[in-house]
C-alpha cells in the first residue's frame, strides 16, 4: 500500500542572495519504518520535539491498538523505546492514560536513562519522571505542555479545559478542574513548574489575557458558555521566552465536540510572566511554530496571511512566516506565496532550512517539503497517502516531522503503508 509521490510544490522565487552565501541542500535517504504491526505506533511527543535519546540510540514512541476514535478517560497505551542499535527492537517502559494522536504523551528526554511524560495518577493529570532502566520514578503534580532546554522547568496548561473544545489535544476525564462554567478564569492559565522542587507559579491567568484577545459572546440556543484558554506552548532555546496560543470559542458541545470558530491570538511572554507581547495583528492567528535553534528569539510560524481579508479559516489562507520577538512589524513571508498552506514549521538544527509538512491534498496525500530559508528555494520531500480510516480529524495522522539533535536524521508519523507507524530518513549534509 506504499504510495510516496512527488510533492506538488513548485520552486519558490529566489530572493536577492548571492549564490556563494546559499547553503547547499543536504542529501536525504528514503523514509524507512522503525516500528511495525500488528500494533500501531507514533512518536511519544508533538512535532518538532527531539524524540531521540541524547546518545541517539533510542527513540520514544507510543504503541496502541486504538484507531477510529478518541482515547476515553483512563484508557492506556504503552510508552516504549525503539532501540536503533538492536534491529529496532521495541522496549516497553511504561503506560500512560494522558495521550492523544496529535501530541502523544508529550515525552521529553532528560538524559539517556531518564524520560518524562504525562500520565493520570490517583485521579490527577501529572508528569512522570522515569528512569527507564531502574524503573525508579518521581511524580510532578502538573502535566507538562513544554519543557525547557536545560530540563529544569516546564510549562503547564489545563488539559481538561483544552479537551472541551479540542479533544484531539486535551485529555479525557476529570484529571484537572476544567472550570467549564467560567469564561475567563483568574486562577488558571499559563503555569511555570520547577521540575526539581515541583513548585508551580501561575505567570498569566486567562483573565489577564482578556484585554488582548477577541471578545466572545453567548449564542442563544447553543450549548456551553463562551470559553477562553491557552494552549500550544513552546520555550525558546535560551529558556527565556514562551510562545503560546490564546484561543476562545463562543459555544461548544461536549459530547459531539462541535464548537464555534476559534478566535486565536499568538503571544510570547518571559518565563517570569513579564513582557507579554502579541505576535501578529488581528486576524493573523498563528499555528505550527518553532523557535530558532541558535537561542535567538526568531521564530517560524504559519499565519493567516493578510488575515483581515479571510472570513473563514481555509488551508489556502495560511502561509509560513519568520519573525523576531520585539520586531513583530518585520514579519517575513516564506516561499513568496508558493507555500500557502498550514505547514508544520521546523528549523533544521543549523537553522538554515525549514522542514514543512501539511494536511492532505485533494488526492489525500500529505506533502512534505524542505525550504532554504535564505532564499525560499523549496525541495519536495514526497507526499504520503492517507487511507480512508485515517481521514477523520480527531484521530488523523499528521506527519509531524522532528529532527535528531545533530541533524543526521529526521522522523515522521505516517499511514501510507496502511497502519500508523514511525518512519526515519537519514540525512547527509551537503559538502560545499
Briefly, what is this?
The protein has one helix and 30 strands.
What is the first-to-last residue Cα distance? 38 Å
Class based on secondary structure composition and strand pairing: mainly beta
**Spatial strand sequence of the major β-sheet:** 1-27-26-25-24
Proportion in β-strands: 35-45%
Biggest pleated sheet: 5 strands, antiparallel
Q: How many helices?
A: 1
> What is the rounded Rg?
21 Å
pLDDT < 50 stretches: 1-20
| Proportion in helices | under 10%
Q: Keyphrases for this structure?
A:
globular; mainly beta; disordered N terminus; 30 strands; 1 helix; about 425 residues; five-stranded antiparallel beta sheet
Q: Mind explaining what this structure looks like?
A:
- There is one protein chain.
- This protein is an all-beta fold.
- It contains one helix and 30 strands.
- The strands form seven sheets. The chain has a five-stranded antiparallel β-sheet, with no helix packed on it. Strands 2, 3, 28, 29 and 30 form a five-stranded antiparallel β-sheet that branches. Strands 4-5-6-7 form a four-stranded antiparallel β-sheet, with no helix packed on it.
- The longest helix has 7 residues, at 159-165.
Amino acid at each position: 500500500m506504499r504510495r510516496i509521490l512527488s510533492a506538488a510544490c513548485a520552486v519558490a522565487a529566489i530572493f536577492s542572495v548571492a549564490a556563494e552565501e546559499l547553503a547547499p541542500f543536504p542529501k536525504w535517504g528514503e523514509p524507512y519504518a522503525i516500528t511495525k504491526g500488528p500494533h500501531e505506533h507514533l512518536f511519544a511527543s508533538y512535532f518538532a520535539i527531539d524524540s531521540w535519546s541524547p546518545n541517539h540510540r533510542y527513540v520514544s514512541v507510543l504503541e496502541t491498538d486504538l484507531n477510529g476514535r478518541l482515547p476515553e478517560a483512563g484508557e492506556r497505551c504503552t510508552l516504549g523505546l525503539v532501540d536503533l542499535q538492536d534491529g529496532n527492537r521495541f522496549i516497553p517502559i511504561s503506560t500512560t492514560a494522558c495521550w492523544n494522536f496529535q501530541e502523544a504523551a508529550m515525552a521529553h528526554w532528560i538524559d539517556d536513562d531518564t524520560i518524562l511524560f504525562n500520565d493520570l495518577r490517583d485521579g490527577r493529570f501529572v508528569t512522570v519522571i522515569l528512569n527507564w532502566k531502574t524503573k525508579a520514578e518521581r511524580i510532578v503534580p502538573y502535566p507538562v505542555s513544554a519543557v525547557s532546554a536545560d530540563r529544569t522547568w516546564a510549562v503547564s496548561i489545563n488539559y481538561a479545559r483544552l479537551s472541551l473544545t479540542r479533544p484531539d489535544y486535551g485529555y479525557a476525564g476529570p484529571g484537572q478542574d476544567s472550570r467549564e462554567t467560567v469564561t475567563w478564569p483568574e486562577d488558571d492559565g499559563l503555569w511555570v513548574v520547577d521540575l526539581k522542587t515541583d513548585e508551580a507559579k501561575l505567570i498569566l491567568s486567562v483573565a489577564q489575557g482578556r484585554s488582548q484577545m477577541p471578545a466572545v459572546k453567548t449564542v442563544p440556543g447553543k450549548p456551553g458558555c463562551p470559553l477562553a484558554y491557552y494552549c500550544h506552548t513552546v520555550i525558546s532555546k535560551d529558556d527565556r521566552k514562551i510562545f503560546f496560543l490564546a484561543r476562545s470559542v463562543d459555544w461548544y458541545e461536549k459530547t459531539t465536540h462541535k464548537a464555534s470558530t476559534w478566535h486565536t491570538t499568538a503571544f510570547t511572554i518571559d518565563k517570569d510572566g513579564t513582557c507579554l507581547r502579541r505576535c501578529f495583528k488581528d486576524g493573523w492567528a498563528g499555528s505550527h511554530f518553532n523557535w530558532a535553534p541558535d537561542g535567538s528569539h526568531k521564530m517560524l510560524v504559519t499565519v493567516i496571511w493578510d488575515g483581515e481579508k479571510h472570513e473563514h479559516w481555509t488551508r489556502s489562507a495560511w502561509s509560513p512566516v519568520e519573525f523576531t520577538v520585539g520586531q513583530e512589524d518585520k514579519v517575513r513571508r516564506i516561499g513568496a506565496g508558493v507555500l500557502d498552506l498550514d505547514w508544520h514549521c521546523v528549523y533544521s538544527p543549523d537553522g538554515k532550512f525549514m522542514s514543512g509538512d501539511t494536511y492532505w491534498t485533494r488526492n489525500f496525500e500529505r506533502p512534505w517539503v524542505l525550504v532554504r530559508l535564505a532564499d525560499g528555494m523549496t525541495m519536495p520531500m514526497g507526499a504520503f497517502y492517507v487511507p480512508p480510516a485515517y481521514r477523520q480529524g480527531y484521530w488523523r495522522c499528521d506527519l509531524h516531522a522532528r529532527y535528531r539533535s545533530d541533524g543526521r536524521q529526521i522522523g515522521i508519523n505516517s499511514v501510507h503503508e496502511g497502519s500508523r507507524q514511525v518512519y526515519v530518513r537519514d540525512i547527509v549534509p551537503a559538502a560545499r
